[in-house]
Task: inverse folding
Protein backbone atom coordinates (compact mmCIF):
# COMPACT_ATOMS: atom_id res chain seq x y z
CA UNK A 1 0.00 0.00 0.00
CA UNK A 2 1.23 3.46 -0.71
CA UNK A 3 1.31 6.21 1.91
CA UNK A 4 -2.03 7.69 0.84
CA UNK A 5 -3.81 4.33 1.03
CA UNK A 6 -2.28 3.60 4.43
CA UNK A 7 -3.41 7.03 5.67
CA UNK A 8 -6.94 6.34 4.40
CA UNK A 9 -6.97 3.00 6.21
CA UNK A 10 -5.74 4.63 9.44
CA UNK A 11 -8.44 7.31 9.15
CA UNK A 12 -11.09 4.62 8.72
CA UNK A 13 -9.88 2.80 11.82
CA UNK A 14 -9.78 6.00 13.87
CA UNK A 15 -13.29 7.04 12.83
CA UNK A 16 -15.02 3.67 13.13
CA UNK A 17 -17.78 3.89 15.72
CA UNK A 18 -20.69 1.54 16.29
CA UNK A 19 -22.38 -0.72 13.78
CA UNK A 20 -21.94 1.82 10.97
CA UNK A 21 -18.21 2.01 11.62
CA UNK A 22 -17.99 -1.78 11.68
CA UNK A 23 -19.81 -1.92 8.33
CA UNK A 24 -17.38 0.61 6.82
CA UNK A 25 -14.33 -1.32 8.04
CA UNK A 26 -15.66 -4.67 6.82
CA UNK A 27 -16.51 -3.17 3.42
CA UNK A 28 -13.06 -1.59 3.07
CA UNK A 29 -11.33 -4.81 4.15
CA UNK A 30 -13.33 -6.85 1.64
CA UNK A 31 -12.56 -4.46 -1.19
CA UNK A 32 -8.86 -4.41 -0.28
CA UNK A 33 -8.80 -8.22 -0.24
CA UNK A 34 -10.40 -8.40 -3.68
CA UNK A 35 -8.35 -5.56 -5.18
CA UNK A 36 -5.12 -6.89 -3.72
CA UNK A 37 -5.23 -10.37 -5.17
CA UNK A 38 -1.80 -11.02 -6.65
CA UNK A 39 -1.99 -13.62 -9.42
CA UNK A 40 1.74 -14.37 -9.12
CA UNK A 41 1.23 -15.77 -5.61
CA UNK A 42 -1.43 -18.45 -5.90
CA UNK A 43 -1.50 -19.35 -2.21
CA UNK A 44 -1.94 -15.75 -1.10
CA UNK A 45 -4.48 -15.06 -3.85
CA UNK A 46 -6.58 -18.00 -2.62
CA UNK A 47 -6.30 -16.81 0.99
CA UNK A 48 -7.33 -13.26 0.03
CA UNK A 49 -10.25 -14.56 -2.03
CA UNK A 50 -11.58 -16.79 0.74
CA UNK A 51 -11.11 -14.03 3.30
CA UNK A 52 -13.09 -11.71 1.00
CA UNK A 53 -15.92 -14.27 0.98
CA UNK A 54 -16.02 -14.32 4.79
CA UNK A 55 -16.02 -10.53 4.80
CA UNK A 56 -18.87 -10.50 2.30
CA UNK A 57 -20.91 -12.78 4.56
CA UNK A 58 -20.11 -10.53 7.54
CA UNK A 59 -21.24 -7.51 5.54
CA UNK A 60 -24.52 -9.25 4.70
CA UNK A 61 -25.08 -9.98 8.40
CA UNK A 62 -24.47 -6.34 9.29
CA UNK A 63 -26.77 -5.13 6.52
CA UNK A 64 -29.58 -7.32 7.83
CA UNK A 65 -29.77 -5.27 11.01
CA UNK A 66 -27.98 -1.97 10.44
CA UNK A 67 -30.14 0.53 8.55
CA UNK A 68 -28.44 2.53 5.76
CA UNK A 69 -28.86 5.81 7.62
CA UNK A 70 -26.62 4.68 10.49
CA UNK A 71 -23.53 6.23 8.96
CA UNK A 72 -22.22 3.55 6.66
CA UNK A 73 -19.58 4.78 4.25
CA UNK A 74 -18.49 2.60 1.34
CA UNK A 75 -14.74 3.15 1.11
CA UNK A 76 -12.52 1.53 -1.49
CA UNK A 77 -8.78 2.00 -0.96
CA UNK A 78 -8.17 1.67 -4.69
CA UNK A 79 -6.01 -0.52 -6.90
CA UNK A 80 -3.76 -2.71 -4.80
CA UNK A 81 -2.72 -5.46 -7.20
CA UNK A 82 0.65 -3.80 -7.85
CA UNK A 83 1.38 -3.74 -4.14
CA UNK A 84 3.24 -6.58 -2.44
CA UNK A 85 0.66 -9.21 -1.55
CA UNK A 86 1.91 -9.61 2.01
CA UNK A 87 1.47 -5.87 2.60
CA UNK A 88 -2.08 -6.08 1.31
CA UNK A 89 -2.82 -9.06 3.55
CA UNK A 90 -1.38 -7.20 6.56
CA UNK A 91 -3.51 -4.14 5.79
CA UNK A 92 -6.63 -6.29 5.46
CA UNK A 93 -5.85 -7.98 8.78
CA UNK A 94 -5.48 -4.54 10.41
CA UNK A 95 -8.89 -3.49 9.08
CA UNK A 96 -10.46 -6.77 10.20
CA UNK A 97 -9.04 -6.44 13.72
CA UNK A 98 -10.40 -2.88 13.91
CA UNK A 99 -13.78 -4.16 12.66
CA UNK A 100 -13.77 -6.86 15.35
CA UNK A 101 -13.22 -4.17 17.99
CA UNK A 102 -16.02 -2.03 16.55
CA UNK A 103 -18.41 -5.00 16.56
CA UNK A 104 -17.56 -5.90 20.15
CA UNK A 105 -18.03 -2.28 21.21
CA UNK A 106 -21.34 -1.92 19.33
CA UNK A 107 -22.69 -5.17 20.77
CA UNK A 108 -21.61 -4.18 24.28
CA UNK A 109 -23.47 -0.87 24.04
CA UNK A 110 -26.62 -2.31 22.45
CA UNK A 111 -28.27 -2.90 25.80
CA UNK A 112 -30.40 -5.93 26.56
CA UNK A 113 -31.31 -6.50 22.90
CA UNK A 114 -30.47 -10.15 22.15
CA UNK A 115 -30.58 -9.46 18.40
CA UNK A 116 -27.54 -7.21 18.63
CA UNK A 117 -25.70 -9.74 20.76
CA UNK A 118 -26.37 -12.53 18.27
CA UNK A 119 -25.41 -10.29 15.36
CA UNK A 120 -22.16 -9.43 17.10
CA UNK A 121 -21.40 -13.12 17.64
CA UNK A 122 -22.10 -14.06 14.02
CA UNK A 123 -20.11 -11.16 12.59
CA UNK A 124 -17.21 -11.72 15.01
CA UNK A 125 -17.06 -15.36 13.97
CA UNK A 126 -16.87 -14.45 10.28
CA UNK A 127 -14.26 -11.75 10.90
CA UNK A 128 -12.15 -14.18 12.91
CA UNK A 129 -12.37 -16.70 10.06
CA UNK A 130 -11.20 -14.07 7.56
CA UNK A 131 -8.32 -13.04 9.81
CA UNK A 132 -7.27 -16.66 10.30
CA UNK A 133 -7.12 -17.24 6.54
CA UNK A 134 -4.83 -14.24 6.10
CA UNK A 135 -2.55 -14.91 9.03
CA UNK A 136 -1.64 -18.38 7.79
CA UNK A 137 -3.59 -20.39 10.34
CA UNK A 138 -5.27 -23.70 9.59
CA UNK A 139 -8.72 -23.29 8.05
Result:
Amino acid sequence: MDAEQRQQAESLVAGAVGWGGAWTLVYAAGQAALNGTDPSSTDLAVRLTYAALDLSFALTELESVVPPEVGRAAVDLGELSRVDGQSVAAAVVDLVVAAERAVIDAAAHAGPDVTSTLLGARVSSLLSAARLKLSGGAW
Remarks:
- The chain is about 70% helix and 0% strand.
